[in-house]
Amino acid sequence: MARILGYIATSLDGFIATEEDSLDWLFAYDDLELGEHDYRKFIKRIRTVVMGRDTYDFLEKDGSPWAYDEQRVLVVTSRPIAAPKGPLERRSDIDELITELRDLSDGDVWVLGGGKLQMAFIERCALDEIEIYVMPELLGGGRPLFPPTGVRKGLRLLEATPLDQGCVRLHYAFDHAADL
């Protein structure tokens, strides 16, 4: 059974992007030394990437080459994607998608992008672990790490690690048994 993971950066005040969907504040940390927690090491153990349509549209507008040629990519959307930036499959039903992901046995799954899709997985007790990289920035507003939905969950801290340039890595596990 595949593990479904989150791996995301946030400002200290809990935003993942500015109101204009800019990540310039985060790109200022491109030279951040994360050691064993580096994204390049993380992505090597990921077999399937799941993203929402907003994240896909953001990546499509970006001039960078498609970064996920080594992974299966699933985009959660009901709208067609006319000219995909890279190889991908569309899914529209989150519950069916979660069942499909749980049946995978070829590697971990990463729920990439904004908190909206991650929250949909959390609401369904389908996110197993999350790594949150808290950056020493106050954005004062923008896209929240997790949009308010009224869902309350307890998590178990696996590790809290101070890293380079004031970044802190928080690694949590979800206790789904407590949710039942």
| Bulk shape | globular
The helix content is: 10-25%
Tell me, rounded to a whole number, the average pLDDT.
93
Largest sheet, in brief, is: 8 strands, mixed
The H-level CATH homologous superfamily of the domain at 1-18 and 43-145, spelled out, is: Dihydrofolate Reductase, subunit A
Number of strands: 10
List keywords for this structure.
single chain, 180 residues, alpha/beta, Dihydrofolate Reductase, subunit A, 8-stranded mixed sheet, 5 helices, 10 strands, globular
Model description:
The two termini are 19 Å apart. The strands form two sheets. This protein has an eight-stranded mixed sheet with strand order 5-4-3-6-1-7-10-9. The protein has a two-stranded antiparallel ribbon with strand order 2-8. Helix 3 (53-61) links the parallel strand 3 and strand 4. It is globular and about 40 Å long. It has helices spanning 24-27, 39-44, 53-61, 94-102, 115-123, and strands at 4-11, 15-17, 46-52, 72-76, 89-91, 108-112, 129-135, 143-144, 155-162, 168-174. With 180 residues, it is of the alpha/beta class.
